[in-house]
C-alpha cells in the first residue's frame, strides 16, 4: 500500500502553509531556466522532477548574503546588535535528491567547533520535500559518491512523479509526516526513479591519487582552461566558503557574510602580496582535494553529491566530473 | 575547414616557433567544446572548429599560466579578434609576439540550461554581421554571408547589430527597464564569471576586490549587484567588443551583454567610436578631443 497526493492537493497543502506564515521555496520557471525561489502562491512553482537547475537549495540554509550583526556608533561607544534568530517555518519543495543530500554533508561543518546558529536554525525550521529523478544526464554522477536517483539522505519526504498528475509520497521523517499527514490517499500505485547514472571512474582511487600527487604537473595542465570564476562553487549544493565584510559607514553599518570561492585568486591573496595558490592549477587542486580528501578525512562525507551543476553551468566546460575524469585517465589509469 | 585550421597551426609550430596554440577542442562533458592548449604539433588533431565554439579565447592571452607556455597562436572568431585589437591598443599584449588565426564564423549555437547545445543561434550571433575576421594573421574558411570588414565598414555593421539587439530594451519605459534589471540582477550571485571570462577585464586587482576600503558592496544584495554590474559596464564603455562571453558564462542567465552594448552604442553615437575595429586607435575614455561633445556640461 502506498500513499499518493495529486498535484492540486500538493499545491493546496503548500498554499495552506503559506497562509499560516510559512516560507515556501520551489522551482520557478523563467523561460527555459528553472531556479529555486521563494514563492508566495503555490501556483508560481513548477512541480516536476528536473535534472538542470540554475541554483541549489543551499541558499535557503546558507544564503548568498546574510547579515551577522549591525553596529551603530553612539558617542564614545559602539552598539552591536545581533541579527535576529530565524524563527519562521520553511518548506523547500522540489529539491533534487542530490540537493537534499548536501544538507547532512554540511551539518558537521556548521556544527563542529563553532555552532553556526544561522545554518542550524534554518535547518531545524525547514522541511525538505524532494522529487525522485526520472532522468539523468551526462553531467550526473551521484552513483560515484554514494548517491542515487532516489537517495533519501537529507529529505523529509521523497515524492515519485507517477506521470498522471499525482505523486507517490514516501514520508521519511517527523517533519515530512507533519506536512503530509491527512493529505494523502491510499493507493496501490508505486513510483519509480530512473536508472542510476553510469560512471567509469572510482572516486576512492582518485582520492588516493590526489593524496600522493600534490606536486603533479597534471594539475596545471588540466586546469588551463579554467578562468577562475566562482560559478561552480556558487551553484554547488555543498560548497560553503564565505567571506565576512563590513558594509556601511564609519558611524553605522553591518557585518555581512557573503559566499566566496576558492577558484578566485583573491581567495588566498596575502596582505604581503604573496599568493600560496597563485595559479589556477593550485586552485583546482584545492577544490578537488577539499571535496574528495580533506573533507571526507575530517567529516566522513565527500563534499560532493554528484549533481553535476558545476559542469552544467561552467562557461569553460569544466567542473568536477570532467576534472575527475581527467585525473582518472591521465593520473590513476596512466599510473602517473 | 577543420583540416585547414589544423594544417595552419601545424605550420605555425614548424615555422614560427609557436609554443602553445589556443584553440577549441571537445574537452567537456559529452564532448562539449571548450579551450584546448596544444603544446605539440602531434596534438594538433585535438583542435575542432564548429558552431559550438562559444568562448572568447582571448581571455587567456593575459594569464601568466598561459604566457609561461611560450609564443602563442590563438584561434579567433571575428568578434574575438576585435578583443585582441583592443588588448594590443591598450598595451596588454604585444601583437607582434602573437599569431592570430582568424576563423570565418557564421554564428555560434546557444547553450541550453542543461549545458547541451541548442538548435538556436546564440542571441548575439543573431544580429552579428561580421563573419570574416579582420586584423588577423591568417584567415581560415570562406563564407557567402559577408566580406571581411575594414575599420569603416565594421563601424557601420557592428552598430547595426547593436541596434537590433537593443530594440528589446528601447521598447521599454524607464520604469519597465529598471524593473527588468531589478529582476535580472536579483539572480546575480557575484561569482564574477562575467569578469573572468571577459578578455578586457584584465585588471590584476578589480575594483570589486578592493577592500581597504571597499569601493562597492561585495554582497549579492540588490544594491551590491546593481553597483557591480553597472560599474563593470562603465569600465567597458568604449572597450567592449560585443563578443558576449560574459552573458554566455553567467550561471544565472543574465543578459549582461545588453548593458555593454548600450554603452558601445553610446560610444558610436556620440564619438563615432567602435572598439576593436582599428589597430592603434587611442582608447576612447583615455583621450580628449577638441571636437568632443560638451552639451552635457551645464
Mean pLDDT of chain A: 95
Oligomer: heterodimer
Task: Kindly give the count of domains of chain A.
Answer: 1
Class computed from helices, strands and strand pairing of chain B: alpha/beta
> Which term fits the overall shape of chain A?
globular
Structural class of chain A: alpha+beta
Kindly estimate the percentage of residues of chain B that lie in beta strands according to DSSP: 5-15%
Number of strands of chain B: 8
Number of helices of chain A: 11
Biggest sheet overview of chain A: 8 strands, mixed
- Low-pLDDT regions of chain A: none
Separation, N- and C-terminal Cα atoms of chain B:
56 Å
Principal-axis shape of chain B: globular
What does it look like?
The complex is a heterodimer of chains A (336) and B (298). Chain A has 336 residues and is α+β, with helices and mostly antiparallel strands. Chain A contains eleven helices and twelve strands. In chain A, a hairpin with a 3-residue loop joins strand 11 (242-248) and strand 12. Chain B has 298 residues and is an alpha/beta fold. Chain B folds into two domains: 2-161, no CATH class; 165-271, no CATH class. In chain B, strands 1, 2, 3, 4, 5 and 8 form a six-stranded mixed β-sheet that branches. In chain B, strands 6-7 form a two-stranded antiparallel ribbon. In chain B, 49% of the residues are buried. Chains A and B meet through strand 3, helix 8, strand 11, strand 12 and helix 10 of A and strand 2, helix 2, helix 7 and helix 9 of B.
Amino acid at each position: 500500500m502506498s500513499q499518493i497526493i495529486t498535484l492540486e492537493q500538493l499545491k493546496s497543502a503548500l498554499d495552506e502553509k503559506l497562509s499560516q506564515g510559512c516560507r515556501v521555496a520551489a522551482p520557478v520557471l523563467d523561460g527555459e531556466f528553472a531556479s529555486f525561489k521563494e514563492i508566495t502562491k503555490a501556483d508560481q512553482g513548477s512541480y516536476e522532477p528536473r535534472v538542470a537547475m540554475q541554483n541549489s537549495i543551499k541558499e535557503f540554509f546558507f544564503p548568498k548574503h546574510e547579515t551577522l550583526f549591525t553596529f551603530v556608533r553612539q558617542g564614545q561607544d559602539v552598539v552591536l546588535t545581533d541579527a535576529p534568530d530565524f524563527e519562521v517555518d520553511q518548506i523547500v519543495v522540489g529539491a533534487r535528491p542530490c540537493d537534499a543530500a548536501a544538507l547532512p554533508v554540511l551539518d558537521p561543518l556548521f556544527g563542529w567547533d563553532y555552532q553556526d546558529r544561522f545554518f542550524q536554525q534554518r535547518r531545524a525550521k525547514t522541511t525538505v520535500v524532494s522529487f525522485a529523478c526520472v532522468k539523468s544526464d551526462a553531467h550526473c554522477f551521484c552513483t560515484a559518491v554514494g548517491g542515487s536517483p532516489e537517495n533519501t539522505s537529507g529529505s523529509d519526504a521523497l515524492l515519485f512523479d507517477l506521470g498522471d498528475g499525482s505523486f507517490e509520497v514516501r514520508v521519511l521523517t517527523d517533519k515530512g509526516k507533519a506536512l503530509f499527514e491527512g493529505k494523502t490517499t491510499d493507493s496501490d500505485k508505486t513510483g519509480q526513479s530512473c536508472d542510476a547514472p553510469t560512471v567509469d571512474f572510482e572516486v576512492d582511487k582518485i582520492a588516493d591519487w590526489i593524496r600522493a600527487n600534490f606536486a603533479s604537473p597534471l594539475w596545471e595542465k588540466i586546469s588551463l582552461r579554467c578562468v577562475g570564476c566562482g560559478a561552480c562553487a556558487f551553484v554547488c549544493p555543498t560548497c560553503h566558503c564565505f567571506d565576512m565584510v563590513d558594509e556601511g559607514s564609519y558611524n553605522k553599518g553591518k557585518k555581512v557574510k557573503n559566499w566566496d570561492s576558492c577558484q578566485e585568486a583573491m581567495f588566498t591573496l596575502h596582505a604581503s602580496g604573496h599568493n600560496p595558490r597563485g595559479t589556477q592549477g593550485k586552485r583546482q587542486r584545492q577544490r578537488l582535494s577539499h571535496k574528495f580528501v580533506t573533507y571526507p578525512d575530517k567529516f566522513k562525507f565527500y563534499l560532493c553529491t554528484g549533481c553535476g551543476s558545476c559542469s552544467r553551468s561552467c562557461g569553460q566546460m569544466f567542473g568536477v566530473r570532467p576534472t575527475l575524469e581527467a585525473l582518472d585517465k591521465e593520473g590513476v589509469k596512466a599510473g602517473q | 575547414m577543420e583540416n585547414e585550421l589544423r594544417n595552419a597551426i601545424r605550420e605555425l609550430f614548424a615555422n614560427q616557433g609557436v609554443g602553445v596554440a589556443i584553440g577549441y577542442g571537445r574537452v567537456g562533458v559529452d564532448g562539449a567544446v571548450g579551450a584546448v592548449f596544444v603544446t605539440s604539433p602531434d596534438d594538433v588533431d585535438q583542435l575542432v572548429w564548429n558552431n559550438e565554439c562559444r568562448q572568447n579565447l582571448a581571455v587567456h592571452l593575459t594569464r601568466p599560466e598561459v604566457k609561461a607556455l611560450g609564443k602563442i597562436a590563438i584561434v579567433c572568431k571575428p568578434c574575438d579578434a576585435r578583443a585582441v585589437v583592443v588588448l594590443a591598443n591598450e598595451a596588454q599584449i604585444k601583437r607582434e609576439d602573437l599569431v592570430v588565426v582568424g576563423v570565418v564564423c557564421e554564428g555560434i549555437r546557444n547553450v541550453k540550461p542543461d549545458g547541451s547545445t541548442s538548435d538556436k543561434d546564440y542571441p548575439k550571433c543573431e544580429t552579428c554581421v561580421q563573419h570574416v575576421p579582420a586584423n588577423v594573421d591568417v584567415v581560415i574558411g570562406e563564407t557567402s554571408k559577408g566580406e571581411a570588414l575594414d575599420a569603416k565598414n565594421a563601424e557601420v555593421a557592428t552598430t547595426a547589430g547593436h541596434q537590433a539587439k537593443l530594440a528589446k530594451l528601447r521598447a521599454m519605459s524607464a520604469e519597465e527597464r529598471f524593473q527588468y534589471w531589478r529582476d535580472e540582477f536579483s539572480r546575480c550571485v557575484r561569482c564574477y564569471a562575467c569578469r573572468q571570462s571577459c578578455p578586457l577585464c584584465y585588471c590584476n586587482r578589480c575594483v570589486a576586490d578592493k577592500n581597504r576600503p571597499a569601493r562597492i558592496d561585495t554582497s549579492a544584495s540588490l544594491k551590491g549587484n546593481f553597483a557591480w554590474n553597472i560599474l563593470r559596464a562603465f569600465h567597458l564603455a568604449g572597450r567592449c567588443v560585443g563578443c558576449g562571453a560574459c552573458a554566455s558564462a553567467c550561471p544565472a542567465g543574465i543578459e549582461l551583454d545588453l548593458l555593454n552594448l548600450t554603452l558601445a552604442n553610446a560610444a558610436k553615437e556620440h564619438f563615432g567610436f567602435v572598439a576593436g575595429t582599428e589597430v592603434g586607435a587611442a582608447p576612447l575614455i583615455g583621450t580628449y578631443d577638441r571636437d568632443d561633445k560638451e552639451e552635457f556640461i551645464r
